[in-house]
């Protein structure tokens, strides 16, 4: 009994020695791999560089019945229109959002979200739902991410029914400031405002000028101006003239020309302003 009682403590001591040795080895290893107190832990983001950038819209292509078109026409079935948007940083789950500005362009309407068909980081294809509200003038379009961040806006022309208001020809098609120009078409009224805005402009106001008489409703004339007003406000106020909010100087380049009256906005023809 005595000898057996002596052997138990020796076995316990041996086990404790092994346990302590193992623990010391583990602590030494952790000290080697642990960061220093001053270094701390480094958190690395898994988000790719630029992924948090806001969306940027660079171009669009409008389609009607899957055929490319340059503008939308009042009276066409809206559900037959779709749009392809191009740009950068389109986050997954983004949508195309439009606002109808009309010919007065005094403020934005209620934003309307289109139906997304497919998208990736640089393209988004969307369809116009039947409920989309549309009025003649301009339609703004932008891309809105799932976090609510919106891109810049681009403008889509929404024109009146061609049978009611349209421009068939412009003569001449180029000339310097001061050149007399005649528009031919249908649906004109005396003193109709004429949209005269630079091609490629990112402005949303319907910049323009006022025409001379149209006795037969089929011709309008004006002189190429040295400046245009913002906005075209006669239709909004009912006055033949109104104080412009601002003016823009006209310089050589291509300009969009269309007629605006109570019927809406006509199709666009181009005029080239040349140097003197």
Amino- and carboxy-terminal Cα gap: 126 Å
Q: Could you say which overall geometry the principal axes of the C-alpha atoms support?
A: globular
> How many whole angstroms does the radius of gyration measure?
34 Å
Order of helices and strands: HEEEEEEEEEEEEEEEEEHEEEE
| CATH H-level superfamily title of the largest domain | Immunoglobulins
User: What's the CATH C level of the largest domain?
Assistant: Mainly Beta
Which percent range fits the helix content? Answer: 10-25%
Which architecture name of the largest domain does CATH use? Sandwich
Output the number of helix runs. Answer: 2
Please tell me the overall pLDDT.
Answer: 80
Structural class label: mainly beta
Question: What keyword list fits this structure?
Answer:
276 residues; mainly beta; Immunoglobulin-like; 2 domains; 6-stranded mixed sheet; 5-stranded antiparallel sheet; 21 strands; 13% helix; globular; disordered N terminus
Q: What layout of secondary structure does this protein have?
A:
Layout: H1 2-33, E1 56-64, E2 67-69, E3 72-73, E4 81-88, E5 95-102, E6 112-113, E7 115-119, E8 123-127, E9 137-144, E10 154-159, E11 166-171, E12 174-175, E13 180-186, E14 193-198, E15 208-210, E16 219-223, E17 227-230, H2 234-237, E18 246-249, E19 253-261, E20 264-265, E21 269-273
Parallel strand pairs: 3-10, 12-21
Antiparallel strand pairs: 1-2, 1-4, 4-8, 5-6, 5-9, 7-8, 9-10, 11-13, 13-16, 14-15, 14-19, 17-18, 19-20, 19-21
């Amino acid at each position: 009994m005595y000898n057996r009682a002596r052997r138990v403590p020796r076995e316990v001591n041996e086990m404790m020695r092994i346990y302590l040795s193992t623990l010391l080895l583990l602590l030494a290893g952790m000290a080697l791999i642990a960061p220093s107190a001053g270094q701390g832990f480094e958190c690395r983001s898994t988000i790719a560089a630029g992924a948090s950038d806001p969306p940027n819209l660079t171009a669009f292509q409008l389609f009607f019945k899957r055929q490319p078109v340059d503008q939308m026409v009042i009276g066409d079935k809206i559900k037959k229109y779709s749009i392809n948007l191009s740009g950068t940083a389109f986050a997954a789950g983004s949508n195309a959002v439009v606002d109808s500005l009309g010919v007065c362009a005094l403020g934005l309407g209620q934003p309307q979200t289109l139906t997304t068909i497919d998208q990736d980081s640089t393209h988004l294809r969307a369809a116009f739902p039947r409920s989309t509200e549309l009025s003649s003038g301009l339609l703004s379009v932008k891309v809105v991410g799932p976090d609510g961040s919106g891109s810049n806006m681009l403008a889509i022309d929404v024109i009146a029914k061609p049978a009611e208001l349209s421009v068939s020809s412009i003569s001449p098609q180029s000339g310097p400031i001061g050149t007399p120009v005649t528009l031919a078409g249908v649906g004109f009224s005396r003193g109709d405002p004429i949209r005269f805005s630079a091609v490629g402009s990112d402005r949303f106001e319907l910049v323009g000028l006022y025409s001379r008489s149209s006795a037969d409703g089929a011709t309008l004339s004006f002189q190429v101006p040295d400046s245009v007003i913002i906005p075209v406000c006669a239709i909004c106020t009912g006055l033949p003239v109104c104080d412009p909010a601002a003016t823009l100087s006209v310089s050589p380049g291509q300009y969009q020309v269309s007629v605006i009256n109570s019927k809406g906005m006509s199709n666009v023809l181009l005029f080239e302003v040349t140097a003197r």
